[in-house]
Amino acid sequence: MAAMFEPKHAATHKERRVYGRYEKLYTLNDFLAALYFLVGSVMFFYESLMIAATWCFTLGSVHFLLRPTIKVAREFHIAQLPLPGDDERRS
Asked: Could you give the CA distance from residue 63 to residue 32 in angstroms, rounded to a whole number?
């Protein structure tokens, strides 16, 4: 098992695949956060949409909170993957 946040560890194919999936999720999350803030900003120009705009800002903030959560989940997931040669050492 690899240590979390280990920058010098050479990634295996499976680790790169897992990393790529989390990177896509991270990018989607960033895009959604930006979209919520942009839509909320435009809505704030209209008195009738102030409450909806506030909800957009709140949802955008939740997405900003998810950013480090996704990174930690990715590192935890990768740390749980077996290192090359782990099977050989156990037998």
From this structure: 7
**Pair of tokens at residue 73:** 């989940």
Which phi and psi angles does 81 have, rounded to 5°? -70, 145
Q: Which residue has the higher pLDDT, 53 or 89?
A: 53
The structure tokens listed for 1 are 């098992």
Q: Does residue 8 or residue 75 have the better pLDDT? A: 75
Distance CA 40, CA 25 (A): 22
Structural domain boundaries, residue 20: 13-81
The pTM of the full predicted model, rounded to 2 decimals, is: 0.76
The per-residue pLDDT for 12 is 82
**Nearest-5° angle of CA 6, CA 2, CA 78?**
85
**Is residue 91 situated within a structural domain?**
no
Neighbouring CB atoms inside 10 A of 58's CB total 11
Q: Within the chain, where are the H helices?
A: 13-43, 50-80, 86-90
